[in-house]
Amino acid sequence: MAEVSAPPAEVLLSKRVQEMVLNGEEPQRPYICRDDGTKEAIPSPPSLIPIIDISLLSSSEPCSAQELQRLRSALSSWGCFQAIGHGIPKSFLDKIRQVAREFFEQPMEEKKRHAKGVEEFEGYGADPVPAEGQSLDWSDRLFLDVYPEDRRKPKFWPVNPKSFRGVLEEYTAKMQILTELVSKAMAKSLNLEENCFLNQFGKQAALQARFNYYSKCQRPDLVLGLKAHADGSGYTIILQDDVEGLQVFKDELWLTVPAISDALLVLMGDQMEIMTNGMFRSPVHRVLTNSEKERISVAVFYTTEPNKEIGPEEGLINEERQKIFKKVKDYADVHWEYYQQGKRAIHVAKA
Ligand SMILES: O=C(O)CCC(=O)C(=O)O
Ligand SMILES: [Fe+2]
């Protein structure tokens, strides 16, 4: 299987995984990141990722206090939850999944009209070359800045399928509403002023959409769709299709996030861990590969506006609970440098 002399990462990254699969190529050594499949022989136990009904969080609801308590507990122990009652109809979530699938199923030439450079972030392609010795992900992506609108770069936005742009614009608008609701609810769940996180994120807080396409892989025992990492965002909202693969690391176990067709996974990034002074966890997660089916997901990263300093909310610091993080600026950049070395970055924010 793995040849003795695999091409260097920059050569592999200039090709799409989907192309390699269509050509019947087996994963080469830089894609191999696990040495044997025996660990995965044990199926992960059924996971109990909390499901939170967003519609119950508004104060006019009789059971809002109870749901806020469940939210707080979910984010303190898991760092993520499956959001239902978020107001986005399943038919619209299906539309997003559909345009994403149609985009990736087009011929390579069409997708490459929106190709990114190997060292760029935005556009269609793969992550820039990681540090020496780091494995590559078995995935192709379309990464787009979607908000604020003046950051959109039209050359990266698919022209086909024709409905792609309109659907993504609508999804962006819905994500803005959802981030406002979730940010307020998280603050209330911690007995903080409801706008405190929104103020830290800033009016120009960014939304970036990453469409992930995980091709089938002949060696799921050796290759990951996405390496283990914690997000550098404030938090991330993930739409999955019906193929499971995303796993969250909790209590020394990798636990699969169930595919629930009308739910969105809300997952804390390091910036929320910092702002909550560690009350909410930014969980390590990864994506497995699958030999039978392709998988598509759409991750929307919600990140503080550029140059904005963030830090632990004062209301969360007291005699019993000291400040564990300091103020940081442009954390996402620092996070990226460590990410490329396969490391977490949160320690740089430790007080
Ligand atoms: O594909 C997924 O479900 C997760 C994607 C993810 O973790 C990311 O893009 O950071
Ligand atoms: Fe992630």
TrEMBL record:
Q: Per UniProt, which keywords does this protein have?
A: Iron, Metal-binding, Oxidoreductase, Vitamin C
Keyword Oxidoreductase annotated = yes
Q: What is the residue range of the signal peptide feature?
A: none
UniProt-listed Gene3D superfamilies: B-lactam Antibiotic, Isopenicillin N Synthase, Chain
Q: Where is the Fe2OG dioxygenase domain?
A: 205-304
Annotated InterPro entries = DIOX_N (IPR026992), IPNS-like_FE2OG_OXY (IPR044861), IPNS-like_sf (IPR027443), Oxoglu/Fe-dep_dioxygenase_dom (IPR005123), Plant_2OG-oxidoreductases (IPR050295)
Which Pfam families did the record assign? 2OG-FeII_Oxy, DIOX_N
Q: Report which superkingdom the organism of origin falls in.
A: Eukaryota
Q: In the record, what terms sit under GO molecular function?
A: L-ascorbic acid binding; metal ion binding; oxidoreductase activity
The UniProt similarity line reads: Belongs to the iron/ascorbate-dependent oxidoreductase family.
Q: What is this protein called?
A: Fe2OG dioxygenase domain-containing protein
- Upper taxonomic lineage: Eukaryota, Viridiplantae, Streptophyta, Embryophyta, Tracheophyta
